Amino acid sequence: MKYPTILLIVTLAGVGIYYQQNSICWNPLTYDIGDFDVNFGITKDKFTSIIKEAETVWERDIGQDLFNYQPGTKFKVSLIFDERQELTIEGNQSKEEIEESRISYEAILSQYKLSEAVYRSDFRQYEFNLNIFQQQLDTYNNKVAELNNKGGATPKEYQGLEKDRKFMEDLKTRLDRDRATLNSAAARLNYLGDQVNELAQKLNIEVDVHNQVFGEAREFDQGEYINGKINIYQFDAISDLRLVIAHELGHALGLDHVENPKSIMYYLMEKQNLNNIALTQEDKKAFRQRCEFHVPKLRELFN
User: Which of 222, 287, 281 is nearest to 250 (CA)?
Assistant: First the structure.
């Protein structure tokens, strides 16, 4: 007498489990907010609204009501602060430091380029004036040599030479002053150039360190779907959080990872469009295959 009873219990248990796993194909999965850590810097209402946005991604592209927020239900979505978010905070601080270095670098580089342009313009003018001075000096010296060969200059010629000599001296004084100004500008330019190089080196080091520590493509370990609940551990920004939740909701629907790097259900967060997340054909196919495979069997069991 026990054997039929045992067989009947096993059969009913199997059907019950089967129904629980696959009823979401036509009945919305209800969820509630579980643990919520304020250290993430968002409110519980904001967290709830982001979950709704993530569920809308699935419902919009599938064309079906898949999730419902229902306080008190067993399925929980939690926000849990641990070392992963601490690392994210460090990464964001690193980004801020890099941005500050970049701003400083670009400011000094801008000064350098402006100073260089002024220096080059002034240097060209100096070379032009120096060339004129050299030509006039040659003319003056030739006149002096010519008059000396003739035995000397007349008073009128001497006055003309004196006038030319004073003009040449004034021109040389201006050239000396311009040369000193150019040398000072060159020293300033070299100083700015050294600063540009130092800041560029500092910026490159900061970027390299950041990329080594924080720059790798991330597997979806920011969250997990386990034992009938979703735990979120880490996100960089709201758009990042929305994608993580959408990914874990996919697991809650019973979907595994797919191969398209742009898919929500791809195992890496890398090439998805965070600003406009949407299901790919691979995401839709995974859902369709899951439900098309199971629903007819369930209907057959209950008909």
Answer: 287
Sheet with 67-69, edge to edge strand ranges? 67-69, 29-36, 76-79, 229-232, 223-226
Query: 270 lies in which domain range?
Result: 13-81+233-293
Within this chain, do residues 176 and 199 fall inside the same structural domain, yes or no?
A: yes
pLDDT digits (tens, 9 = 90+) for 147-166: 999 988 899 989 999 999 99
| Domain finish residue from 157, 184, 215 | 215
CA nearest to 42, candidates 79, 7, 69: 79
Please tell me the pTM assigned to this model: 0.58
